[in-house]
Specification:
With about 575 residues, this protein is of the alpha/beta class. The protein folds into two domains: about 1-315, ABC transporter transmembrane region fold; about 330-405 and about 530-580, P-loop containing nucleotide triphosphate hydrolases (Rossmann fold), CATH 3.40.50.300. It is built from 22 helices and twelve strands. It has a six-stranded mixed beta sheet. The protein has a four-stranded antiparallel beta sheet with strand order 2-1-4-5, with no helix packed on it. It starts with a helix and ends with a helix.
């Protein structure tokens, strides 16, 4: 239960409301415990003596205790519900904030579907237990302790029977609690898998239909759904055996109290009212334990969920600000790679990049060319520290990028990633995502440079046109051009275009390149591409092969010195040259 207990950290801002709710619950328990004693009074002093006045007066007291208990319960709920919901909201916010600190390496290891389950289902489990704790669970120990005190004061002999049963019941609860947690953890893992399959199905529904794979995807989902259902059934069947067993023990205790109490009444050591009160106190002390047994499922589920949430919250970002970092002044844009080695695993045993030495002068356009898997994207991801090098260093104006604060470093870099991501909102909001306060004129200028202005103004609402989820109402080329405009608007000192024009036609690409040449004269640009036509006019072309620089130079130089470059050129443009 350590993981769940740690969640009390999130209750601290609301501790006074929580303590008030617990105080009200204590008042409710006290009011409830008065009723058996008042029942005893009616029987022993009212009924036995035929004292109607005593019966009426005590009945009014019982009614008052019942009303007071109900008022305490209502007030407790009014305070407990906001606390539980706010704690759930705070945990969810903390989880999202933590994910935002993660580097690409962290996100490579945690699937999106898992994070969604942790931010929804897992947090809901914790929220429910906090609410139950403030409203019901705290009532159980208070009721047990209060009932035992009242039972001892009523009949010390009968209280011994309860003391004998109590360890047995608590042992059963502990047994089930210890074995339920791993079962509920398995349920959440099955839910992760279901959510992952569902997310892939919904995101890729067009591909599914295009390849007529409906039956296959339905089968994948059904399998994940059945796995989750089966795990849920098994865990609930396990938990379901506890309540009947504990109820049987409660009934056994009541029978024992009546049996032994009856003998004491016969011997004159106990009154009828005292035995009635004792039966009520036995029920009051054991029933909360039965209720607690019924809560083993939610408690175990919440503890498993809390462990999964702390797994994220306790994670350390692989890329963090180092001590003593300082922002750079008057950045020129000189980027150097010095003996860089990088691997997605720890160390450089299986490097993606090895012994990379490269210099990008201020204002240069450096094109990165190579086969799929040669390390092109990995190389440029090291500049804004999406990943950190394992050996060597990447420097900006001679300063190791690890010595620059992340926010300050990334504010200097405009990035268009391979996978174009747009957010729900207007086109204007997407373009000014990196500069929310950008004036309209600069937004339009960036859109024109990215060759996006014409198609944007062709929409009925122009720049106020709403982008659908994941940009579904835009073509691939339109999304890429908006992403380029977004990168240009931040006026970067370093521009990174990672295969960012793959979905646009050659003519539009040429216009984008011409506009970029005009706008990036004081900007160092890295262009990753598969198209040889894109790199012809670059100041420097770098050919990567299996994570190493095979050749670098201008187009004319590489046509002479690099066989790999010539092969790429011939395969893409050779026929055009020969036909011409």
């Amino acid at each position: 239960m350590k993981s769940l207990w740690r969640m009390t950290h999130f209750i601290r801002p609301y501790r006074w409301q929580a303590l008030s709710a617990l105080g009200l619950r204590l008042g409710m328990v006290v009011a409830d415990l008065l009723i058996p004693r008042l029942t005893q009074r009616i029987i022993d002093q009212g009924v036995a003596r035929s004292d109607l006045r005593m019966i009426g007066f005590t009945a009014v007291l019982m009614l008052g205790a019942a009303v007071l208990s109900a008022l305490f319960a209502v007030a407790n709920t009014i305070l407990a519900v906001p606390v539980a919901h706010r704690v759930g909201a705070d945990v969810r916010s903390a989880l999202v904030r933590k994910v935002q600190t993660f580097s690409f390496g962290n996100l490579d290891r945690i699937q999106t579907g898992e994070l969604l389950v942790r931010a929804t289902s897992d947090i809901n489990s914790i929220h429910m237990v906090i609410l139950l704790s403030l409203r019901m669970l705290i009532r159980a120990p208070l009721w047990v302790i209060g009932s035992m005190i009242m039972l001892v004061s009523t009949s010390p002999q009968l209280s011994l029977l309860m003391l004998a049963l109590l360890p047995l019941i608590l042992g059963m609860i502990w047994f089930f609690l210890a074995r339920a947690r791993p079962r509920f953890l398995a349920v959440q893992q099955k839910l992760d898998r279901l959510n992952q399959v569902l997310q892939e199905n919904l995101a890729g529904v067009r591909v599914v239909k295009a390849f007529v794979r409906d039956d296959h995807e339905n089968e994948r989902f059904n399998q994940a759904n059945q796995d989750l259902t089966g795990e849920n059934i098994r865990v609930m069947q396990f938990i379901a055996t506890l309540i009947p067993t504990m109820t049987a023990l409660v009934n056994l205790a009541v029978v024992g109290v009546i049996w032994f109490g009856g003998n004491l009444v016969t011997a004159g050591d106990l009154t009828v009212g005292e035995i009635v009160a004792s039966v009520n106190y036995v029920t009051f002390s054991l029933f909360p334990l039965v209720m607690l047994g019924g809560m083993i499922g939610p408690i175990s589920a919440a503890d498993a969920s809390a462990g999964r949430i702390w797994e994220v919250l306790d994670s350390t970002a692989e890329v963090e600000n180092l001590p003593g970092t300082q922002p750079l002044d008057d950045v020129r844009g000189l980027v150097t790679f010095e003996d860089v080695c990088f691997s997605y695993n720890d160390g450089c045993d299986e490097p993606v990049l090895s012994k990379v030495n490269l210099v990008a002068e201020p204002g240069q356009t450096v094109a990165i060319l190579g086969a799929t898997g040669s390390g092109k994207s990995s190389l440029i991801h090291l500049v804004p520290r999406f990943y950190d090098v394992d050996q060597g260093r990447v420097a900006l104006d001679g300063v190791d990028v690890r010595d620059v604060p992340l926010d300050a470093l990334r504010a200097l870099v405009g990035v268009v990633l391979q996978e174009t991501v747009l957010f729900t909102g207007t086109i204007r909001d997407n373009i000014r995502y990196g500069r929310p306060d950008a004036p309209e004129g600069e937004i339009i200028a960036a859109a024109k440079a990215a060759q996006a202005h014409d198609f944007i103004t062709a929409f009925p609402d122009g720049y106020d046109s709403v982008v659908g989820q994941r940009g579904v109402n835009l073509s691939g080329g339109q999304k890429q051009r908006i992403a380029i405009a977004r990168a240009l608007l931040v006026r970067p000192k370093i521009l990174i275009l990672d295969d960012s024009t793959s979905a646009v036609d050659v003519e539009t690409e040429a216009k984008i390149e011409a506009a970029l040449e005009r706008l990036t004269t004081d900007c160092t640009a890295f262009v990753v591409t598969q198209r040889i036509s894109t790199v012809l006019n670059a100041d420097k072309i770098v050919v990567l092969d299996r994570g190493q620089i095979s050749a670098e130079g201008t187009h004319a130089e590489l046509m002479v010195s690099s066989s790999i470059y010539r092969e790429i050129y011939e395969s893409q443009l050779g026929n055009m040259v020969h036909n011409g």
